[in-house]
């Protein structure tokens, strides 16, 4: 059986995270659940790992890795960026910027389902 390991990194401050990461986390949980059911019959197992980051590691927050490769490295034309995040600023207690992903001219603060699915397909070669 082939294994796809999906790792999601996000800020964790006493059990809380920012709005962007919360939204990404919900979407990612649904995609992992759906793909696990779909792909099990095809011999692909998904392992999910959640890495909690401290305030000093905020530059990695909201990263999704597929077998160790960043989502934006798997999807042609996708790039990582950053923008101010009021939610993280509140959690950390100072001005900070969070990661974004840009694809086809749109900047995403929370990672949408279609990009997560595209990255899983490219990481496994299945789809």
* Overall residue-averaged pLDDT value: 93
**How do the SSEs run, as a string of H and E?**
EHEEEHEHEEH
Helix content: 25-40%
Strand order of the largest sheet: 2-1-3-4
Structural class: alpha+beta
Query: What's the overall geometry?
Result: globular
Number of helices: 4
Number-wise, the strands total 7
Question: What is the CATH class name?
Answer: Alpha Beta
End-to-end Cα distance, whole Å, is 16 Å
CATH second-level architecture: 3-Layer(aba) Sandwich
How large a portion of the residues is in β-strands, by DSSP E? 25-35%
In the CATH hierarchy, the third-tier topology is known as: Glutaredoxin
Cα gyration radius (Å):
15 Å
* Poorly predicted tracts of residues: none
Number of domains: 1
- Characterize the largest beta sheet: strand count, sense, and whether it forms a barrel: 4 strands, mixed
Describe this structure in words.
This protein has 127 residues and is an alpha+beta fold. The chain has one domain: Glutaredoxin, CATH 3.40.30. The protein has helices spanning 19-40, 71-74, 86-92, 113-124, and strands spanning 2-11, 44-53, 63-66, 69-70, 79-84, 97-103, 106-108.
